[in-house]
Amino acid sequence: MTSDATDQDPAMLLAALALAITQASPGDDVIVVSGARTGEVAETLATPVTVFDRAELRRIGAQHISEILNRSPGVFINRGNGVEHLTAIRSPVFTGGAGAGSFLYLEDGIPLRAAGFANINGLFEAVDDLAGQIEVIRGPGGAVYGSNALHGLVNVITPEPDEAGRLAELEAGSFGRVRARAYAGGETGFGSGFIGLGVRHENGWRDDAQLDRSTLQTSLDGAAGALDWSLRASLVDLDQETATYVSGFKAYEDEALSQQNADPEAFRNARAARVSLHLDQNLSQNWRATGAVYGRSNEMDFRLHFLPSEALETTGHDSLGLQSALVRETETSRFMLGMDGEWTNGFLIENQTQPGFGSFPQGLHYDYAVEAGVAAVFAQGRFQLSERLSLEGGARLEQTRYDYDNRTANGVTGRYLRPADRSDSFTTFAPHAGVVFDATDRLQLFARAARGVRAPQTAELYRLDSGQQVGGFDPEELDSLEAGLRMQSWASGRIELVGFTMDKTNVFFRDANGFNVSDAETTHDGVEASLVQPLGDRLTVSASVTWAVHEYAFADATEGIAPGNRVDTAPEWLWNVRAVWEPTFDSQIEAEWIHVDEYFADAANTARYEGHDLLNLRARYTLRPGLDVFSSIRNVLDDRYAERADYAFGNYRYFPGEPRSVSVGVRLSR
Predict the structure, then answer these.
(1) Rounded-to-integer distance, Cα 527 and Cα 13, Å
(2) For the chain, how many structural domains are there in total?
(3) CA 350 from chain center: how many Å?
(4) Which residues contact 585 (CB under 8 A, 6 or more apart)?
(5) pTM for the whole thing?
(6) What is the CATH number of the domain that holds 537?
(7) Nearest one of 480, 509, 464 to 603, comparing CA atoms
(8) Cα-flanking dihedrals φ and ψ of residue 29, to 5°?
(9) 270 vs 214, 275, 301, CA distance in Å?
(10) Can you tell me the distance from the alpha carbon of 146 to that of 142, in angstroms, rounded to the nearest whole number?
(11) 3-class DSSP state of 68
(12) pLDDT tens digits for range 123-172
């Protein structure tokens, strides 16, 4: 790549940030729960974690969860229409089964979906608008997490009832946007309770792109002797009209063309329900038992607008699961030994309603059900060897079994292959080990080696095209090495630098002929930096910077892939820089600069997207204690850009970025 940004040496970034270090007192501890399903201080972990607390979530007022997560180093989420998105965490932006299965999306440590039934847009089922905290782990998850925690995970955490308080909020803005939410937490006659409701509507800035989304979340916490319990439930309802790609070189620069929707009949309607009971029982001074039992139900109707058939797809699955662990904690150690299990019954139906043409026949393309079982055992621990040195490690052994039932005729119809009934099993082993060394009171060094795994998605195994093979696939494995440092700068500032290298094998993708390829390899190397630095009493600067190179390590003639080619949709440089200024006690202004470097739009590295820079502004003013007015201007300079650029079927295509938009709102809280 040839842009000015890509000519920079990542070592220069390390040196520049290191110059900021001086003697100072450390800031407040940041508590995370994603490392081991319970609260831990971030600085004790060898795993890099980004934490978005309630104050930052409130300041962002996200219209899409990408506005939150893209503030983390190593994260690049392409926003589609409405709630749609494609994710990258220490990776290129993935599509298909890789996009669904390479990242684990959680609510309070429990996956939003069963591992083999993931969705590339799976974050739309998270109740992010009511979250008390959101955490991102970059790189493979620990032993407490199984399949799909490959490149990283996102954990959306329910507010603590005793800390939530009460809030009512209303916001309106450009393109017919209206967002409202209300919640309350506190003591009830049965324990500490929380209930929250969020609703969102937008007409869409593109034609026929309306969105309606509702969320409901409740929790009730209590205790019975030495047993602490928490009952939690979430509901999500989505009704979305979908705007598709615009085609043509730099089509996103044409405002009128960008607003058009080539397929006004495209839509996505989905429902998700989850309930879980979390238990924590003290057994003795050092021992306790912890875990959760849970159920989930997901269903979605989706017009496959990106395929010539424009078939209607209906999918869904229901699950029951158990997480459990024995935990031993002392002043110098923490050890977990656990067992998890999950049963899922899912289905997929694809039906073409328009008349048949070519290899796309009218009627049923697929109609199948899959019963899935997952069982796992794991061990994970952290041990303080001295005042300054600690070790951590663990491993997870997991067995996944799919029992597939074809509910229509076996064999080939048109371009579709429907396998006969079969069963498939996959065994994965995921170890990790890390070390944390406090070199001084203000400088900490850490390193970690880990393996991430994912069993194939059910759609990868059973939703096949004619000419594809049936079975014979191995789980993907990603081996990761990383090392970094955390430093305390002046005025309680924080800096974290992490370098990583990852090799992934048994990579599964579909080539230009639509055939499965399951023996591909890729490499991923990069440096991540994050900074939070107060500059006086009223100004704080924060930044996340990523330099990364993602390359193919195999050849594929149909896609034009050669070893050393850059993986498409993988910018070399990303950064997000924020300045929060409080000119008075009652007011706050945030300016945000987002940079996305150029990247290749195809695997052969023949097509490029030039990248973009965006400026966002947010402000809040307190009229009286507990009553705030707030506003935002997104894309202040009204730049024409692409949220996603792709090159397929001999043509450029884009998800055009939204033009300048304005919103204003009022918030009542206590």
Answers:
(1) 9
(2) 1
(3) 27
(4) none
(5) 0.93
(6) 2.40.170.20
(7) 509
(8) -65, 140
(9) 11, 17, 6
(10) 8
(11) helix
(12) 999 999 999 999 999 999 889 988 898 999 999 999 999 999 999 999 99
